[in-house]
């Protein structure tokens, strides 16, 4: 078992920061950050040094590698999913302390940037100076761009490991899945994406922006062996019918009302039937917390009623994991400071609890690689 080589370490110590520090603040959530660092490293000071030492000492024993991407610049309703990585990590440590994984840290996020392709040369130069102390650096500076760049190197050197990422708004899944799919193709593997969401995320663009929380799926379809290897579960908030999305993009969908009308077992069998003759080797699970009914997950930017229960989501995941290895995944759109239920901290606690349960299951699966 091996850890990270020196070239990769040199990159991530520049492009990443310690777990929980992806949102650059002085006082906001300071106590929670200190609690996280205490749990991870035993101290609340000299965290940069302790984090870098942990990166160097990682021996590869834990196959599941955690990555936080604390960006909500690609969202567009209620913001606040940038706090998801910090809060969900704390919940995982508190409620699933037996879980095995290596925490690689957070992508360094300049909060008003999304992707480098939207920036002019002067902005890129200034931001490279701010992030890396070198305006001549060739490293990317926007969260989506950094994530994709780092993960291309990660997968090239760590074929026996998998990433579980915590966002962030759902635009973050664009670089996560793109790097994953391209790496798996290079390895000769056929992979499917199981996407839990209340929304299709299949816009071509939203208000002129082509990479955002509502469009990321559209722009990874070419990285799949076939578009119907994107299977979406829990859809219910759409201005167009299911037939539009399936016929236009070639994806497969299982709307939330089908779970009510057909029952969860029938829906699971339908998903299995779609995958049965596709020679799928591995699965990636992208989970937007709003796939769950707002009763269970209201601390998110776009909570929706009439969604899945946590038990239904877990039954789908458990059933599929018995047939296919889950080798990558993410949990998106948990926004602990938002509240559509009127219950304040109770709402956040409930959302984090179910988010942690699903995340823990996915991390366990990745660790079995």
From TrEMBL:
Keyword match Amino-acid biosynthesis: no
InterPro entries registered for this protein in UniProt: Ureohydrolase, Ureohydrolase_dom_sf
GO molecular function term, any single one: metal ion binding
Pfam families for this protein: Arginase
GO-annotated biological processes: putrescine biosynthetic process from arginine, via agmatine
Gene3D superfamilies assigned: Ureohydrolase domain
Keywords: Hydrolase, Metal-binding
The family this protein is said to belong to: Belongs to the arginase family.
Record's protein name: Arginase family protein
Organism of this sequence: Thalassotalea algicola
